[in-house]
Specification:
Layout: E1 20-22, E2 28-30, H1 38-41, H2 56-64, E3 68-69, E4 71-77, E5 80-86, E6 90-94, E7 97-104, H3 110-114, E8 119-123, H4 129-136, E9 149-151, E10 157-159, E11 164-176, E12 179-190, E13 198-202, E14 205-209
């Protein structure tokens, strides 16, 4: 598959156990056995964990070779619009429609998420590769003149060139290591839908996948 853009680093978030939910206040709800506690599995980062036996570099290499879709998540922040490119977006449920993703705990996007603000998840196609690279670049002018966007009536930054956009409300959040894991309910869809080839991210590069190829 041809690479579409320059090598671009952005955070690939980890996905946690989907049978477990947590509130920001720390209460847990498990879909497994009574008495199960999420913190029994994910211990505090300062305690002894699997990180003692799993080499972080090897763990990153494992996921670097694992293809994923690409999305841009946007929300209205206290100081204006914020957005970030993410490769961790995944479908969780269809009834109700729900998805999950993770971002860095110190991301500017974490602030509106922790305040349960509405957000937009833009699912990128191949033609959106440059937009994905822009929102992944530290210090880039993400909402500058090169980006076509507007605020919705709910105050979310809508990237107008992306065909498939999911409006979400935050359902649960959970701190996992140095990441914030988010479960969100999909409450609406914007845009005409996917158009052209699809976009994947693997080995720190964007790749185009022909629509309908089954790849």
């Amino acid at each position: 598959m041809p690479a579409l853009a320059k090598r671009t680093r952005f955070r690939r978030g980890s996905l946690a156990d989907r049978t477990t939910e947590s509130t920001s206040s720390g209460s847990q709800k498990a879909g497994t056995q009574p008495g199960f506690r999420f913190e029994d599995v994910w211990m505090d980062r300062n305690q002894s964990t699997a990180a003692d036996v799993v080499d972080p570099a090897a763990f990153r290499r494992a996921f670097r070779g694992h293809p994923s879709g690409v999305a841009i998540i946007t929300a209205g922040g206290p100081d204006g619009p914020v957005g970030v490119t993410a490769s961790s977006v995944a479908s969780v449920s269809t009834r109700p429609p729900a998805l999950s993703f993770s971002i860095a705990e110190n991301s500017r996007l974490a602030v509106p998420i922790r305040h349960r603000r509405s957000l937009l998840v833009h699912l990128l196609d191949s033609r959106d590769a440059d937009l994905g690279a822009r929102f992944a670049e530290p210090g880039a002018s993400r909402f500058g003149q090169e980006t076509r966007w507007r605020l919705t009536d709910r105050g979310e930054p809508h990237l107008l060139d992306v065909g498939t956009v999911l409006r979400c409300t935050v359902h649960r959040t959970l701190d996992v290591g140095d990441a914030l894991l988010v479960g969100a309910l999909v409450v609406g869809m914007l845009g005409p839908g996917h158009d052209g080839d699809r976009l994947a991210y693997v080995e720190r590069r964007y790749h185009s996948i022909p629509a309908g190829s089954g790849a």
